[in-house]
Design brief:
Length: 221
């Protein structure tokens, strides 16, 4: 099959972005963090290998016990571990959340930093969570390469490898900077509703109808 030129791929990415915007106009973050950057950081860390729905449930109790960065910095670790147990990998997640809260309190006056470099110095924070913060909180260009983004980008032929850094770097020049954070939120909703992991519903997919997905016939098998 003839390789798609970068120009054509960029035009297709713009059409995909527009189709997803039309289907999911509000593009809300699936994590219910109430606009508090520190809460989004905590929820982002808990969401690794866990569903957003479970994180939302767990955090209702968690934030009633530890409502902010200062309270979490003083958290009793066994209590914290018990509260986040059902999110999995709970010992590491609990330690990370307490440790980065201490660091935010002591080094950043309790504020979540607004650069990739600074965010990556926080315990347990990788590029995915950092991009979530940059996009959602600071409205900077950000590709959040989560499981939905990786799977769907590969099916759409926008990316070739299921590697988060590859996906982030490949999508960055393809998706308009103003749209990138919302684009990733829309992929989450789209990945749950239509382009699901096990049985994508290609027959009702707006991207198939527009001829925008080269994997449609494969995914139908
Ligand atoms: S056509 Fe199928 S594989 Fe392609 S994006 Fe739509 S649901 Fe996913």
């Amino acid at each position: 099959m003839k390789k798609e030129s970068e120009k054509k791929k960029k035009a297709r990415a713009a059409a995909i972005t527009a189709a997803l915007r039309a289907r999911y106009p509000t593009a809300e973050c699936a994590l219910e963090y109430g606009g508090d950057p520190w809460r989004l950081l905590v929820m982002g860390r808990l969401s690794a290998q866990c569903t957003d729905a479970r994180v939302n449930t767990v955090c209702r109790t968690l934030f009633s016990v530890y409502p902010d960065c200062n309270a979490m910095a003083e958290a009793d670790l066994p209590t914290l571990e018990r509260l986040v147990y059902s999110c999995g990998v709970y010992k590491v997640k609990a330690a990370n959340i307490r440790d980065f809260s201490v660091m935010l309190r002591d080094c950043y006056a309790g504020c979540v930093p607004d650069t990739m470099e600074a965010l990556l110095t926080l315990p347990g924070v990788g590029r995915k969570i950092a991009n979530l913060i940059l996009g959602d909180v600071y409205h900077k260009p950000a590709i959040v390469a989560d499981t939905h983004c990786i799977r769907i980008s590969c099916r759409l032929g926008l990316c070739e490898k299921r590697d988060p850094v590859h996906v982030e770097k490949t999508l960055t020049p393809l998706i308009s900077p103003e749209e990138s954070a919302d684009f990733c939120h829309r992929l989450v909703w789209f990945g749950r509703e239509i382009c699901t992991a096990r049985a994508p519903r290609c027959g009702e997919c707006p991207l198939r109808a527009g001829g925008l997905c080269p994997s449609a016939h494969v995914a139908d098998d």
